Amino acid sequence: MTENNSKNDEITGLELSPRKVSYLKFLLTKGETVRTTEISEAFDVDPSTVTKLIAELAEDGYLDHIPYRGVTLTDAGKVYAEFCLKRHQILGLMFSHYGLTPEESCDETSRIETFVSKRAIDRMCSSMGHPTLSCCVKPGEARQINHDSCFHESRPNLIKKL
Amino acid sequence: MTENNSKNDEITGLELSPRKVSYLKFLLTKGETVRTTEISEAFDVDPSTVTKLIAELAEDGYLDHIPYRGVTLTDAGKVYAEFCLKRHQILGLMFSHYGLTPEESCDETSRIETFVSKRAIDRMCSSMGHPTLSCCVKPGEARQINHDSCFHESRPNLIKKL
DNA sequence: TTTAAATTTGGTATCGTGCCAAAAATTTGG
DNA sequence: CCAAATTTTTGGCACGATACCAAATTTAAA
Most CB atoms closer than 10 Å: which of A43, B7, B55, B106? Predict the structure, then answer.
């Protein structure tokens, strides 16, 4: 149940650049194989720019890239993307606690998220009681916060790890 | 009293790069004229690196630079630095609300602060009730949060500005 | 005033990100 | 099933932020 892969704790949350994090989150919400053009249109950048970033992400094991075909998240990529999404949601929730509108929260979060550590997010998440509602999901897409990547205090091996 | 300079509202909080913000905050805490070497030692970078960044900051009106002599904050620079310091404190306080230690709060804040808008900080500040205590000040230096840069809701011209 | 120390200049480098043009592969339409 | 259209990739280049080094310049010190 709560037996997450222990690999998870090796994530610091600071390993990827802003754009790469955006791509991973996008791929996660997209599901299956995604083509270069889909990404380049979603982010309004040149396809060649996408090709280069996904090459690096593939190199680092976050995704599988079949040239001229598209990319899919690897298992590690899914785990990481899940964390990124959750981080975004936790931070958005946090800003909303201080009176920012959902849009403002999302905006501010988008600028800072890649610089917030997993360690901090885990603490914040438990401090918030592991919330299931995110303040900033696209309407209709009522995705709940996924705590799989969370470093729950109740985990038996927490003591060792800390 | 609360008649801040209206220039203040022209600050978005996103105009300066991380290093530049660090320099301004450092200069503010230092007071008078500061020499290149002081900065380069404080941040452990080559003096030539400092020279270049302060040249840009001077160019943009944040400081006065007398070559071979040192730099001082201009009035605008002081205002901006004051805002940066406050932003750091508000964000640090925020993280501490979610169970992060002072050190963790300060660390996380240092990575994100330059990407958080003044608008967000102002909202957060009033949501917090304009706190005067910062969680992350260097020990001994019990600097209180300075709200001069704050966009108080009680300001008479708030309506127009919003 | 000659020497030492601090500062600035000019050159170069890396990382993240982006564009463009040309080449390569895939898809489509006849 | 093959030529044309579309997609993707490659290679080159660029820019902002940041950094280093070596050489030149200025200031300070002996």
Answer: B106
Distance from the Cα of A21 to chain B's closest Cα (Å) equals 15
* DSSP single-letter state for residue A3: -
Residue B141 contacts strand D, CB under 7 A:
no
Return the residue of A nearest to B96 by Cα: A124
CB contact under 8 A, A115 and B116: no
Q: Is nucleic acid strand D under 7 Å from B43's C-beta?
A: yes
Domain B7-76 fold is Arc Repressor Mutant, subunit A (1.10.10)
In sequence order, the 6+-apart residues with CB closer than 8 A to the CB of B87 are B13, B113, B116, B118, B121
Give pLDDT, residue B124.
97
CA separation for the pair B82, B29 (Å, rounded):
10
pTM of the model: 0.85
